[in-house]
Design a protein that fits this description.
This protein is of the alpha/beta class and 251 residues long. It has helices at residues 2-26, 33-41, 57-62, 80-83, 98-110, 137-145, 159-164, 202-212, 236-250, and strands at residues 29-31, 49-53, 64-65, 68-70, 90-94, 115-119, 129-130, 133-135, 152-155, 171-172, 193-196, 218-221. It is 39% helix and 17% strand. Helix 7 (159-164) links the parallel strand 9 (152-155) and strand 10 (171-172).
């Protein structure tokens, strides 16, 4: 009789420990596909979320959520620095399998992220998907600094903002005049084209237009210039002024 009581208590303790060990995953919030789709369409609400597609790069390029960056599950631990600023904010991960989503939630939670949700799988909901690549501010900055690459930059801001500073060689685009876009685009549709704006919204419109025109390697900065401190070159007019000031100082 005593043995049976001891066995029952032991089994109860093991069960409790097992539940505690799984609590991180089971307690994670679940986001329905319909709700996430709605957030992605709302230009203001989407600013409150970082959405991460944890599928492999090939699957991501076949179609992903509009403002979702790609960090494959196997690379999450090595990519924490890229998304560190979101530790206290809302993070949503999605995949094509529930177990992958749960693994990603566990990894992020262990790295100190406070508010991580798992969204409905892409195989289980008809999301509105895009084929251009969405980049975080830090990844877009890497492209700005890669002067050896043959990158094309399109700046979708007003002229005044553009003239204060912009990517090297960037062309200033008016999102309301996309019919004029063809005349300034390269003939080679395989060239990497990077698009950015103030908040990532108008640039996403241009990015989609580029995809519609047949360009294959289009990247949009989800963090606009109002959200990330990019290191731009000084605009040509400002360079002239800077040179003049330096010349006066030497006299």
């Amino acid at each position: 009789m005593k043995y049976n009581k001891f066995l029952a208590v032991s089994m109860s303790a093991i069960l409790s420990l097992t539940l505690v060990g799984c609590s991180t995953t089971s307690s994670a919030k679940e986001l329905k596909g319909e709700e996430l789709n709605k957030i992605q369409k709302d230009d203001k609400e989407k600013e409150n979320y970082l959405v991460i597609d944890i599928r492999d790069e090939a699957s991501y390029k076949e179609g992903h959520l509009k403002h979702a960056i790609n960090i494959p599950l196997s690379k999450i631990d090595k990519s924490i620095e890229e998304i560190r600023k979101w530790r206290e904010k809302k993070v949503v991960v999605y995949s094509d399998k529930s177990d992958k989503t749960k693994d990603a939630i566990d990894k992020l939670t262990k790295q100190g992220f406070k508010d991580v949700s798992g969204a409905q799988n892409v195989k289980d909901f008809s999301y509105d998907l895009v084929k251009y690549t969405s980049l975080s501010g830090s990844k877009f900055q890497d492209a700005l600094l890669d002067t050896a690459a043959n990158n094309v930059f399109l700046d979708v801001r007003d002229k005044a903002e553009f003239e204060k500073g912009h990517a090297a060689g960037a062309k200033n685009i008016d999102v309301k005049k996309l019919d004029d876009l063809k005349s300034i685009l390269p003939e080679n549709k395989e060239l990497p084209i990077y698009v950015y704006s103030s908040t990532g919204n108008s640039s996403s419109v241009v990015a989609q237009k580029l995809i519609d025109l047949g360009y294959k390697n289009v990247c949009n900065a989800i963090d606009g210039t109002k959200e990330h401190s990019y290191k731009f070159e000084i605009a040509d007019c400002c360079k002239d002024l800077s040179d003049a000031v330096k010349g006066a100082e030497h006299k």
